[in-house]
Specification:
Layout (H helix, E strand, L loop, with lengths): L3 E6 L21 H14 L4 E6 L3 H10 L6 E2 L16 H7 L1 H8 L13 H15 L10 E6 L1 H13 L3 E2 L21 E7 L2 E9 L16
Helix pairs in contact: 1-2, 3-4, 5-6
Length: 225
């Protein structure tokens, strides 16, 4: 059986992850989030999962335990979400109103951008990239069978970006960001993405699949310019 990687974004939280920058803020799931992860669990029931990797933040740990209660999740600190610093708990609209200059700088998408009082994009990419090397693998998989990673939107997008940068991901090119770099599509709360190891590397079978959520689907509020 080839190595299969299932990337799951945690469910909605009491801090409203669909609209707020809850990066390092440790908030629990909401009732909607628990329902979303129960739907994820029903969807994953047909997969012979070997193990589950998650982050130390409770919204990811709780999501993993609801979706896959038979497993004790492996906590990987490097997979936690980016620290938004002074922007934690704010909406993008609130950030734009309070810090218009740095908000515009953030929208440029440059890797050197650092969130005020928080983490740089480069630092975040480096630590997630280290986790990709240790827990996923680029030239060869670091696991056998089916591994589930339950994490955060920024983390999951960076996992994909790390594999693409290493030339290990077989996928169609995505849209182009404003600065000319390929943009990684978002992934919604409770979404499932699937990568399968093949002769040419990791094949992206699906990204941001939310069909299993049904009435529990919650769209993210887009970044406004």
């Amino acid at each position: 059986m080839p190595a299969i990687l299932l990337l799951v974004r945690h469910g909605e939280t009491t801090g409203e992850s669909s609209i707020r920058l809850n990066g390092s803020t440790d908030v629990p799931l909401s009732d909607l989030g628990r329902a979303q992860m129960a739907a994820v669990g029903a969807h994953l029931a047909s997969f012979a999962v070997r193990d589950v990797v998650t982050t130390p933040l409770q919204r990811a740990r709780e999501s993993a335990r609801i979706a896959l209660p038979a497993f004790e999740p492996i906590s990987v600190p490097e997979l936690r979400e980016i620290d938004f610093g002074a922007w934690e708990r704010l909406t993008y609209a609130e950030v734009r109103e309070r810090d218009q200059e740095r908000y515009a700088e953030m929208l440029r998408g440059l890797p050197g951008f650092t969130f005020p009082g928080g983490e740089s994009r480069e630092g975040f990419s480096k630590r997630v990239g280290d986790a990709v090397h240790s827990w996923i693998g680029t030239s060869v998989p670091r696991f056998d069978g089916i591994r589930v990673v339950v994490a955060h939107k920024g983390t999951l997008k960076t996992i994909r970006k790390s594999l693409e940068a290493a030339g290990a991901l077989v996928s169609a090119p995505g849209p182009i960001a404003s600065e000319g770099a390929p943009a990684i599509p978002s992934c919604h709360l409770g979404s499932v993405s699937e990568l399968v190891w093949g002769p040419s590397g990791w094949e992206l079978v699906r990204w941001d699949d939310t069909r299993h959520l049904g009435e529990h689907f919650q769209p993210d509020h887009p970044v406004t310019r």
